[in-house]
Amino acid sequence: MVGEDAGYYDELEEIQRRKLMELQRRIEEERRRRALEEAEAQKRRILRRILTPKARERLANVRLVKPEIARLVEEQLIILAQQGRIPLPVTDYVLKAILMEISSRVTREFRFKIKEK
């Protein structure tokens, strides 16, 4: 009887341990999700401050079509603005130039030739 009780309590402890681990995992995931959301909100606030309305609209359109390019441009804009290397506010004309530069770099990186013999 005592051996059966020990097995029952071991099993109960194992279940409690698993539940605790699952709860800790969920808490950590929630913490990461909130940190990402806060970082995104901060990025949006900065972009709202440094872009003209027309430039924000263009960047939103790019984000719909090519999210990876939009992300690169957003990061580049924030860095340039923080370093004071770009006139503020960033106009649509300046944004177009940056978009063309980044777009040409990205497309060049993925080009390759296939030669037939």
Architecture overview:
It is elongated, with a radius of gyration of 25 Å. The mean pLDDT is 88. Helix 2 runs parallel beside helix 4 and helix 3 packs across helix 4. With 117 residues, the chain is mainly alpha-helical. The chain is 83% helix and 0% strand.
Structure characteristics:
mainly alpha, 2 domains, 117 residues, elongated, single chain, Helicase, Ruva Protein, domain 3
What order do the helices and strands come in, and which of them pair?
Elements: H1 2-50, H2 53-65, H3 67-83, H4 92-109
Helix pairs in contact: 1-3, 2-3, 2-4, 3-4
Can you describe this structure in just a few lines?
By secondary structure, this protein is mainly alpha-helical.
Q: How far apart are the termini?
A: 80 Å
Which regions are unreliable across 5 or more consecutive residues at pLDDT < 50? none
The CATH topology of the largest domain corresponds to Helicase, Ruva Protein, domain 3
Listing every helix as H and every strand as E from the N terminus to the C terminus, the arrangement reads: HHHH
